[in-house]
Structures are given as structure tokens and as C-alpha cells.
Amino acid sequence: MASELTNYLIVGAVLFTLGALGFLTRRNLIVAVLSAEMMLLGVTLNLVAFSYEHATYEGQVFAAVVLTVAACEAGLALALLSALYRLRKTLDMSVWRDLGEPGVDLPAEKADSAPAHPTPAQPYPRLTPAGRVPETVWTETRTHV
Q1: With contact defined as beta carbons under 8 Å apart, do 39 and 15 qualify?
Q2: How far is the C-alpha of 64 from the C-alpha of 48, rounded, in Å?
Q3: Which domains does the chain have, with CATH numbers?
């Protein structure tokens, strides 16, 4: 008869593999987040199985920590996805490649599409002076002329 640990490890490995395949092959952001959660559940199942096999509680405590972090990650990810959906009206990953600061290219794209003429550096904005102008040699000679 096979060990119970082997059965749990096989189920955990299958969960992790299905999650990894879903994360790498799907283009929908929600499916990618759910696939990452499935990968975490596969790892958590393995932690609990090893904890049960060795009759200790360290794996179960660590699994509780992993599940807590996974729940926080899922909540933040879904909040971010809802904000992104309101912005672009789609959850396709290929649409989100242009997010970032305007004018900043990725290193791989920069080598392919180098501009013919470099753009001049933009000057920093100047603040208008407020209050009394301090007395200097320049202001004294200017006011007397």
C-alpha cells in the first residue's frame, strides 16, 4: 500500500502544475490571479502533508501564514484589477503592456526603436518667487540704474 504522503504530494503537484499552466497560458488577468492562488494551494497542501507525516505543527502554522498572505494578495489583486478594468474596459494582458510612464521604453523595445534624433532634456519647472526679494549686489545696481 502506498504511503498517504505520496497521495497528498501527487495532488499538491497536480494543483501546482495546473496553476502554473493556467498562469502561463491564459491572457485574462483574473484567470492569472486565480491560477497563482491554485499554485499557492498546491504548496500549502504539501506543507500540511509533510507536517502530518512528521507529526509536527510547523507545516500547519506555515500553511496558515501562507493562506493569510494569499488572501491579502487576492484582495489587493482584485481591487487593482477592478480599477484597471474601469480604465481600459478589458482584462486582456496584451492591452496592459503600454502601462507606465509616458516616454519610458522597456530595454528590449529601446534597442529596436531607437529615435533618429535624441530629444533634448526638458528643463525643470521654475517656481515663481514669493515674498520680499532679498537685497543683493545685482538688485542694488539694477534699482539705481
Answers
A1: yes
A2: 10
A3: 4-96 (1.10.287.3510)
Radius of gyration of the chain (CA): 28
- Mapped onto helix, strand or coil, the DSSP state of residue 92 is strand
Q: Which of 15, 35, 16, 10 has the alpha carbon at shortest distance from 25?
A: 35
Dump pLDDT digits (tens) for 49-99: 999 999 899 989 999 999 999 999 989 988 988 888 888 888 887 777 666
Backbone phi and psi for residue 40, each to the nearest 5 degrees, phi listed first: -65, -35
For the whole model, what pTM was predicted?
0.61
Residue type at 51?
Answer: S
- Please answer whether residues 65 and 21 qualify as being in contact, where contact means their C-beta atoms are separated by less than 8 angstroms: no
76 is written with which cell numbers?
489587493
